[in-house]
Write a structure and sequence with these properties.
The protein is α/β, with parallel strands linked by helices. The protein has a single domain, classed as Vaccinia Virus protein VP39 (Rossmann fold), CATH 3.40.50. The chain is built from five helices and seven strands. A seven-stranded mixed β-sheet has the order 3-2-1-4-5-7-6, with helices on both faces. The N and C termini lie close together (about 10 Å). The chain binds S-adenosylmethionine (SAM). S-adenosylmethionine binds next to helix 1.
Length: about 230
């Protein structure tokens, strides 16, 4: 893994009007380029929080809290695909940094939420981040890697912008092991076409292949839902 490709850009301040990221193309497994994902989530944004409410009540809020508890207090954090900011209430004390997101509409709604005082909102594509190497001490992504067109690029970018020794936390639905795996492969054809969601992603493997060290994998719902904690 090569580090040190981008230098000196630092971390941008709050900026809801950055130039939109370009479409960086697709890898063999991707089916929706980033500009269509952006349009999709711009469209979903006004209904997102209401749609998530039953899941939040059932289990998701608890798992968000559990996931963000792995971020070290007072650390400089990058959130990837922050959406409407449903994680903001769970940031550890003194955390600061950047909540990044592809969709301007999701970001606009996130900006209305209570958030940590020194958390900037930045619009960017996770596959090509506008941050210098080792800009952050920790990162979190919840329910994001299922929709990124080229997860390998996003994992590589994460590894680049998180300082060595830093923590990366994922809360994702993934391809379960065992006989359910092939069923999710078949379902994936439908979910991608329906809502750009890849339900058969192997997120822990992707992080490992990018050079991260997996420290914890906690599973729920027959292994479909994973909390993954890694070190860079
Ligand atoms: C299912 S939502 C999850 C939002 C939030 N993380 C949460 O837990 O509620 C997926 C989010 O990932 C964002 N996203 C998708 N592709 C992205 C990319 N290439 N770069 C950055 N964000 C992306 C979407 O815009 C959307 O807000």
């Amino acid at each position: 893994m090569t580090r040190g490709r981008k230098r000196g850009t630092g971390v941008p301040p709050v900026n809801l009007a950055l130039p939109l990221p370009t479409d960086h193309g697709r890898d063999a497994r991707a089916t929706r380029p980033c500009h269509t994902m952006r349009a999709l989530y711009d469209d979903i944004a006004p209904r997102y929080d209401a749609a998530m409410k039953p899941l939040e009540r059932w289990f998701l809020s608890k798992w968000r809290a559990k996931a963000l508890a792995h971020l070290p207090p007072h650390s400089r954090v990058l959130e990837v695909g922050a959406g409407t900011g449903l994680n903001f209430q769970f940031y550890p004390p003194g955390a600061y940094g950047v909540a990044s997101e592809l969709s301007r509409e999701m970001l606009r709604l996130a900006n209305l939420k209570n958030k940590p005082a020194r958390l900037s909102l930045v619009q960017n594509d996770a596959e090509s981040m506008p941050f210098a190497d080792a800009s952050f001490e920790a990162a979190v992504a919840t329910l994001v890697f299922c929709s990124i067109p080229s997860p390998a690029k996003a994992f590589a970018e994460l590894r680049r912008v998180i300082a060595p020794g830093g923590t990366v936390v994922f809360l994702e639905h993934v391809r379960p092991r065992g006989p359910l795996g092939p069923i999710f492969d078949a379902l994936n054809f439908v979910t991608v076409r329906l809502c750009g969601d890849h339900c058969n992603r192997r997120t822990a493997d992707g992080a490992r292949e990018a050079g991260m060290k997996i420290e914890i994998i906690e599973q729920r719902f027959l292994g479909i839902f994973n909390l993954i904690v890694c070190k860079v």
